[in-house]
Design a protein that fits this description.
Elements lengths: L9 H14 L4 E8 L5 E7 L11 E6 L8 H14 L5 H5 L1 E5 L4 H9 L55 H12 L4 E9 L3 E4 L14 H13 L10 E4 H5 L7 H7 L4 E7 L16 H22 L1
Parallel strand pairs: 3-4, 3-5, 5-8, 6-7
Antiparallel strand pairs: 1-2, 2-4, 6-8
Helix pairs in contact: 2-9, 6-9
The structure holds N~2~-sulfamoyl-L-arginine and zinc ion.
Keywords: Carboxypeptidase, Disulfide bond, Hydrolase, Metal-binding, Metalloprotease, Protease, Signal, Zinc
GO molecular function: metallocarboxypeptidase activity; zinc ion binding
Cofactor: Zn(2+)
Length: 312
């Protein structure tokens, strides 16, 4: 079992995914989507109480750890694995849905935040430009092919919001893209776990306009936020739900929740999980809060799944 009293290394999380797949072969299937830039496995779990491949149920996709320094993200995804595979208290979620849970999309960056720079955000690729060897890394949440590198991004490899030399330059981002396309007609809900700010954001995040699903996105978002806010344990701000630009306060193109929505995922959200401090320190959430965050985030996931499933 993965401990939740502290943040876990990428190696521990990888070992946990292997272990769950080995212990629960009827319910969890390990997928290795290839290697990161530095050669780490890009592993995720497909979870199904029946047979994922019979394609009979809607799919829910949750990813975490695309931004390396947002450490509170991966444990919310590994906790969902625990609640869907090891310790099932909401069996309807398995009866109704198949799940794809990808806790650390950017293992190189995540690793780097443990060894070198706690505030690293990007991938660690070095083939981006002449500057690449001086300034490695691409912002994975600017690298999707959705109005790529048009707003809230940078073409400077040294910038934290560097969009990459082209859309989908990053193998880690391509791994998520491929998941979305492989299961597309079935994907009801896509959540990307980030921090911080206690916000649930929905498209469009590049221009602030609303999508064709402008009537569907708010209720599912609000259902998730209500479920979290109702758990009054939190020292964190109440969750706010809304359009990414409006709530976040800036436009940014090439993000995963916009891309997923643009290809047809009806319910697509970025979670900004809680943080307590401002500025960079907001990414540093004391380990004693991990449990609280997974507890409340799980309530949000449960509520979002049920509500999205009802409408989907
Ligand atoms: O800027 C981001 O990538 C996200 N915030 S973070 O502080 N975690 O980096 C927000 C993304 C919001 N979604 C879109 N702009 N589409
Ligand atoms: Zn982020």
């Amino acid at each position: 079992r993965l401990p939740y009293d502290n943040y876990q290394t990428w190696e521990a999380i990888e070992a946990y995914l292997d272990d769950v797949a080995r212990r629960f072969p009827n319910r969890a299937t390990l997928v290795n989507a290839g290697q990161s830039f530095e050669g780490r496995n890009l592993k995720y779990l497909k979870i199904s109480s029946t047979n994922f491949e019979d394609k009979s149920k809607p799919v829910i996709v949750i990813d975490g750890g695309i931004h390396a320094r947002e450490w509170i993200s991966p444990p919310t995804v590994t906790w969902a694995i625990r609640k869907l595979v090891e310790d099932v208290t909401e069996p309807d979620l398995l009866d109704r849905f198949d799940w794809i849970l990808f806790p650390v999309v950017n293992p190189d960056g995540y690793r780097f935040t443990f060894t070198n720079n706690r505030f690293w955000r990007k991938t660690r690729s070095t083939d981006q430009s002449a500057l690449g060897s001086i300034c490695p890394g691409v912002d994975g949440n600017r690298n999707y092919d959705f109005f790529w590198n048009t707003v809230g991004t940078s073409s400077n490899a040294c910038a934290d919001t560097f969009a990459g030399r082209r859309a989908f330059s990053e193998v880690e981002v391509r791994a998520v893209r491929d998941i979305l396309h492989e299961h597309l007609p079935r994907i009801a809900l896509y959540l990307s776990m980030h921090s911080f700010g206690s916000m649930i954001l929905y498209p469009w995040g590049h221009d602030g306009f609303l999508s064709n699903n402008a009537l569907g996105l708010p209720p599912v978002g609000i259902a998730m936020a209500d479920a979290i806010n109702s758990k009054a344990l939190s020292p964190f701000p109440r969750y706010v739900v809304g359009n990414s630009v409006l709530v976040m306060g800036y436009a940014a193109s090439g993000a995963s929740e916009d891309y997923a929505h643009s290809i047809g995922v009806p319910f697509s959200y970025t979670y900004e999980l809680p943080g307590l401090n401002s500025g960079m320190q907001g990414f540093v959430l004391e380990p004693r809060y991990i449990q609280q965050v997974w507890e409340e985030t799980w309530l949000g996931i449960v509520a979002g799944a049920r509500r999205a499933g009802d409408i989907f």
